[in-house]
Amino acid sequence: MYGYEICQHVKDLTSGQMRVTEGALYPALHNMEGEGLLVSHSEIVEGRSRKYYAIAPDQKKYAVNHSSRIQDFITQLQILLNPSTFSDLKIN
């Protein structure tokens, strides 16, 4: 996908609850490309250049493992933020 398309996809997937701005996205994409996590290619579409990004073929396993670690982190946050976690605490 190209940058704007990624922003719209995130917005659509989250029913507008999460928005990624192009100003935040492009530096992240450039950094990940520089680290070898992404590959890109450019195409001319309707007279404009678009840069398409994809996970580097040799990084797909890393992406799966990393997304699993993120999901584990979110699960732990949900436990911590659950009000029942604190129901036994007595605050003086």
Topology summary:
Layout: H1 3-13, H2 22-34, E1 38-45, E2 48-55, H3 60-81
Antiparallel strand pairs: 1-2
How would you sum up this structure, described in words?
- The protein is α+β, with helices and mostly antiparallel strands and 92 residues long.
- The protein folds into two domains: 1-55, Orthogonal Bundle (Arc Repressor Mutant, subunit A), CATH 1.10.10; 57-86.
- It is 50% helix and 17% strand.
- It is built from three helices and two strands.
- The protein has helices at 3-13, 22-34, 60-81; strands at 38-45, 48-55.
- A two-stranded antiparallel sheet has the order 1-2.
- A hairpin with a 2-residue loop joins β1 and β2.
- It is elongated.
- It starts with a helix and ends in an 11-residue tail after the last helix.
- The mean pLDDT is 88.
How would you sum up this structure in a few lines?
The chain is of the alpha+beta class. The protein contains three helices and two strands. The termini are far apart.
Q: CATH H level of the largest domain: which superfamily?
A: Winged helix-like DNA-binding domain superfamily/Winged helix DNA-binding domain
Shape: elongated
Q: Unreliable segments (pLDDT under 50, ≥5 consecutive)?
A: none
Strand order in space, largest sheet: 1-2
CATH topology of the largest domain: Arc Repressor Mutant, subunit A
Average predicted local confidence, pLDDT: 88
CATH architecture of the largest domain: Orthogonal Bundle
Determine the structural class based on helices, strands and strand pairing: alpha+beta
| Main beta-sheet strand count, sense and barrel state | 2 strands, antiparallel
Total count of strands: 2
Q: Report the radius of gyration as a whole number of Å.
A: 19 Å
* Share of residues in helices: 40-55%
- Roughly how many Å apart are the termini? 54 Å
How many structural domains does the protein architecture include? Answer: 2
User: Please, how many helices?
Assistant: 3
Strand content: 15-25%
Q: What order do the helices and strands follow?
A: HHEEH
The level 1 CATH classification of the largest domain is Mainly Alpha
